[in-house]
Amino acid sequence: MRSSLLMLLFCTGTVLAGTTGEDTPWPHQYKIRPDQTDRLTAADVVGPEGIVYPNWTRCGVQGGIPTVKEAAKIEDFGAKANDDFDDSDALQKACDTAGRTGGAVVIGEGTYYLDRPVTIRHDNVVIRGQGLSRTRLVFRYAIPEPGVAFYSPSANATVGPGTRIEMHARPMGLATMTLMIDDTIIDTWTRGQHSGNSFAFAKFGRDIAREVPDGPHTLKGIAEYQGGSRRVTEIPIVLDRRFEDRRLVPDSRAAILFAGQGTVGRTIKLARDGKRGDIELHLETTDGLRNGDCLFLDGPATTRWKELTRNACLWGSYRTCATVITAVADRSITIDQPLRIEFPVIDGSYVRKIVPIQRCGVEDLAIEQTENLWITTVLFSHGWDCWARGVTVTKCGRFPVYGSSAKWCEIRDCTFDDAWFKGGGGTAYAGWESSWDCLMENVETFKFRHAPLFQWAASGCVIRKSVFHESDAQWHAGWTNENLMEQCVVESSQNHGAYGYGMWASPPEDKAHGPNGPRNAVYNCDIRSPKAGLWMGGMNENWLILHNRFVVDSGPGVFAKTSSFDHIIRDNVFVLKDNKSPMIQLATADCTGVEAIGNQLHGGNGRIVAGPGQLALNEGNQVLPLSTAPRPEPAVRSIYDWQRQRP
Predict the structure, then answer these.
(1) The last residue of a domain, from among 195, 222, 250
(2) What residue ranges in 437-572 does DSSP mark as E strands?
(3) How many domains does the chain have?
(4) pLDDT of residue 22
(5) Structure letter (DSSP) for residue 67
(6) What's the pLDDT at 98?
(7) Under-50 pLDDT residues of the chain
(8) β-bridge pairing 230-239 and 200-204
(9) For the whole prediction, is pTM greater than 0.70?
(10) Tell me, what's the pLDDT at 424?
(11) Angle at the Cα of 83 from the Cα atoms of 80 and 87, rounded to 5 degrees
C-alpha cells in the first residue's frame, strides 16, 4: 500500500504533508536498506557492506568484444600507405563490401589519409589497423577557398525532395549561414549561445518553396561573419520533385561514423505507469511489436515534470532508456532489463521501435585530425554492442570516440590527446551521451574540457580504471542516473575550459543543462581539484560517494544545494588545503537525509558539516591535521567486478 502511494505522489507531482517526513520534492525512492525487501527490485544489488547499488552487471558489449574475421583489405580498393593521396573512398568501399557478409576491414602498416568522412551503415563491420604505432589515419577534411562550399549535392546534380542540401563554412567568427535557390531563401542558420564551433547547415529538397519550378537552378550558400565580411558559393543543380534520391552521402558529424537508423514507426503510449524495477510494460496497443524488437522508451519533459524538478533548461533528453522485447502479449510486453527510473502515464510516456547498427568497431590504430572543424573522430550513433579498442586519437575536432544513443558499447584501452576547439557548446568531452549500459575502461585523456562525462539521460553506464589529465569529471546535463565512476584518477584544472571542480553536476536552474537524477556513484577514485571536490547542483537523490580521496586546493570536499538529498558519503579521505572549508557543505536546508560515515578530514576548518542543511547521520568521522594522506583501501576494490563475479 505504501509503495503504491509513493508512486502515485511522484507521478502526479503532489507531495502531501507528512508523507516524506522531510522537505524533499518527491517521496524517497533510492535509499533502501537490505532488509526492506518489499522495496528491492531487479534494478537493485545489495552490496558487500549493505549499501544498495544500481545493477551494472549488463554493462558493455554483451558476451565481450569478439575477435572478428577479416572480410576486406583497404589496399584492394585502391588505398596505398604513405602516398599522401585520399583513401576515404577506398575505406568507404571496403566497409560497404564488408557489410554484405560482416567482418573486419584491415588497414595495413603506414599512414593513410581521409579527405572526406566515412559512414558505416551495415552491422558487423570492424575497422582494424596493425597497432597504435603501425597504422595511422590522418583525417584532413577542410573547407576549400573561399571558405564556404557545398558538401552536398555536387554541381549539376539532380535534387529531389529527399536530397540533402548541406553547406559548410569556416567557423571562426561565423554569424549566419543562408541557403538559397536562385533568389529564394530556403532557410537561414543564426549563431546562438551554444552553437560552439558549428560549420555545417543542412536542409532537404523538400524544404524548397513550392513556387520554385522544377528545372535548372543555381544553389547558393552564403556565410556572413562578425565584422560584416561575406563569403558565397554557387553550384548549378536541376530540381526534380519526382526524383527519388537514393544516394548516400557520408555524414559530416564524424570522421568515422557508425550510424544506426534510429527510431522508426509510430509512438505507442504506456497504458500504466512504468515503475522502477518493472520488466513488464502495459501499452495502449502492441500492434506492430515483435519479440526481439529493439525499443526506445521516453518520459517526456512536460511542464509538470519540469516544475517538480525545477528544471529551467529549454531543451534536452532526460528520462529515456533502450531495451529489447522478450515477449509480447495482449497490450503488454516483457523487456530484458528492469527500468531504472519511473515512466509515468501522466507525462505521456511512450515506446517506439529503434533500428540500431550492431556489433561494429574500430581497433588497433591511431587517428589524427588536422583541421579545426566541429567533427567527432569516431561516433557510435544509435550503435548497440559496438566498440573502440586500442585506439589513439590526437586533436579531435569535437569528441574523440563518443557514444550518442548508444547501448552496450565499449571504449577501452584508448588514449585521447587534446581537441581543436574548447569554446563551449558541447565539445572536448570523453564519455557517454543519451546512452545506456555502456562501458569505458583503461582510457587516458589529456587537455579535455569535461572527462569523464555523462550527459543527457545517460544511465547504467560505467567509466572505470582510467586517468583524466587537466579536465573535470561531470554529470553534465539531463537527468543522468545510476552511472558509476570507479577506480578513476581525475586531475582537474581550469586550463582547457573545465570548471575547476573535481566533479560537477549541473544545477536545475541551468538553462543549458538542467538537473541530474538519482543514484549516481563514485567508488574508489582519486580526485584532485582547484575548487570543491564534488559539486552537486540539486535534485540529486541518493548519490553514493564511497572509498575515494579528494584533494582540494580551496573549497569543501562535497558541496550540495537545492534538494540534493539522501546521499551516502562513506569511508572517503578529504584533504582540504585551505583552512576555511568544511568536509561537507549543505548549502540549503532542503539537503536532507545525507549520511557521513567513517570519513577522514585532513585540514580545512576542522568541521565535518556546515550550512543550513543537517546530516541525518554523522558517525565515525575523523578530523586530522593537514597531510598528504593515502587513498582509502576498500576491502572490495571494484564494486563493478564484485557485481559481475557474484553468483
Answers:
(1) 250
(2) 439-446, 450-455, 462-464, 467-469, 472-477, 484-486, 489-491, 503-505, 521-523, 526-529, 534-536, 544-546, 549-552, 558-560, 568-570
(3) 4
(4) 56
(5) P
(6) 98
(7) 1-21
(8) unpaired
(9) yes
(10) 85
(11) 50
